[in-house]
C-alpha cells in the first residue's frame, strides 16, 4: 500500500488572510508607552539641587565661621545664580548669616533678593526679613512683610514666632489694642494645646469612660495638631 506524499506547504494548517489582518489591527491598537513629562516644579527642584551641591560646603563654612572670605564666596555664588532657585537659597544663607551676626541692616538686601525665587523657602525669607526690618526700626516694612504670614505660609512652623514679631511691630506703631488681642490669641492656643496633650495622654492611660476629641479645642484657633507649637492664627 502506497502512502500519498504531501508537500511541506500542504502539511501546515492554512490561515485565512482575515485572521492575519485582525492580528495586525490588534497590534496597532496596543498602547504605546509615553515618556513621562517632568513638571516645571520638579525640574526647578532638580536644577536647584544640582547647583546647591556646590553651594552647600560654602554655606556651611559661612554659617560656621561667618568670615569675610566665606561671605564673599556665597555672595559671588548668589549673584551668579541670581535668576534661579539656587541663587535664592544662597541669598537666604547670606541673610541668615547676617542675622546670626545680629547685623540686621545687612540682612535686608539679600533677603529681599531671595524673595524672587524663594519657592518653598518663602516662609524663612519672610520671617527673617520681617524680623530684620523690625530690629532696624523699619516697623512699617515689618508689618507689611508679616501681616499675611499665616495665610501665605499656613503650614510653616514659624507662624507663631512671626505673629509675635508682628505684635511687637504693632506695639511700636502705636497699636497696642491689636497687639494685645493677637498675643492673647497666641497665649490661648498654647494653653489649649497643652490641655489637649494632657487630655489625650489621660485618655490613653487612665480614663476609659469616653473618647477625647483632640481637634475640637483648636478649631476656633484655625489650627490642627501635627507638630509641637503649630497652632495657627489669622489676624
Shape annotation:
globular
Average pLDDT for all residues: 75
Q: Tally of extended strands?
A: 0
Residues in β-strands, percent: under 5%
Q: Which value, in Å, is the CA radius of gyration?
A: 32 Å
Which structural class fits the helix and strand makeup?
mainly alpha
As residue ranges, the low-confidence spans are: 201-235
Provide the number of structural domains: 2
Head-to-tail CA distance between termini: 108 Å
**Order of helical and strand elements:** HHHHHHHHHHHH
Work out the oligomeric state of the chains in this entry. single chain
Helix content: 55-70%
Count of helix runs? 12
The profile of the biggest β sheet is: none
Describe this structure in words.
The protein is mainly α and 235 residues long. It contains 12 helices and no strands. It has helices at residues 8-11, 17-29, 40-65, 68-80, 85-100, 104-114, 122-135, 139-146, 149-152, 159-172, 176-205, 216-219. The longest helix is centred in the C-terminal third of the chain and has 30 residues, at 176-205. The model is unreliable at 201-235 (pLDDT under 50).
Amino acid at each position: 500500500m502506497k502512502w500519498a506524499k504531501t508537500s511541506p506547504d500542504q502539511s501546515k494548517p492554512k490561515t485565512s488572510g482575515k485572521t492575519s489582518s485582525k492580528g495586525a489591527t490588534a497590534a496597532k491598537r496596543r498602547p504605546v508607552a509615553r515618556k513621562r513629562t517632568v513638571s516645571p516644579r520638579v525640574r526647578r527642584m532638580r536644577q536647584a539641587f544640582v547647583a546647591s551641591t556646590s553651594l552647600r560646603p560654602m554655606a556651611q563654612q559661612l554659617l560656621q565661621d561667618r568670615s569675610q572670605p566665606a561671605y564673599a564666596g556665597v555672595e559671588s555664588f548668589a549673584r551668579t545664580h541670581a535668576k534661579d532657585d539656587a541663587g535664592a537659597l544662597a541669598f537666604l544663607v547670606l541673610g541668615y548669616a547676617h542675622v546670626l551676626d545680629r547685623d540686621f541692616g545687612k540682612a535686608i538686601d539679600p533677603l529681599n533678593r531671595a524673595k524672587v525665587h524663594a519657592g518653598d523657602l518663602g516662609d524663612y525669607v519672610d520671617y527673617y526679613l520681617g524680623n530684620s526690618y523690625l530690629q532696624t526700626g523699619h516697623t512699617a516694612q515689618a508689618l507689611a512683610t508679616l501681616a499675611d504670614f499665616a495665610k501665605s505660609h499656613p503650614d510653616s512652623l514659624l507662624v507663631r514666632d512671626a505673629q509675635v514679631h508682628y505684635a511687637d511691630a504693632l506695639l511700636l506703631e502705636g497699636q497696642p489694642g491689636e497687639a494685645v488681642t493677637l498675643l492673647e490669641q497666641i497665649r490661648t492656643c498654647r494653653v489649649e494645646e497643652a490641655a489637649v496633650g494632657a487630655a489625650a495622654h489621660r485618655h490613653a492611660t487612665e480614663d476609659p469612660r469616653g473618647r477625647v476629641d483632640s481637634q475640637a479645642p483648636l478649631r476656633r484657633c484655625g489650627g490642627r495638631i501635627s507638630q509641637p507649637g503649630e497652632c495657627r492664627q489669622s489676624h
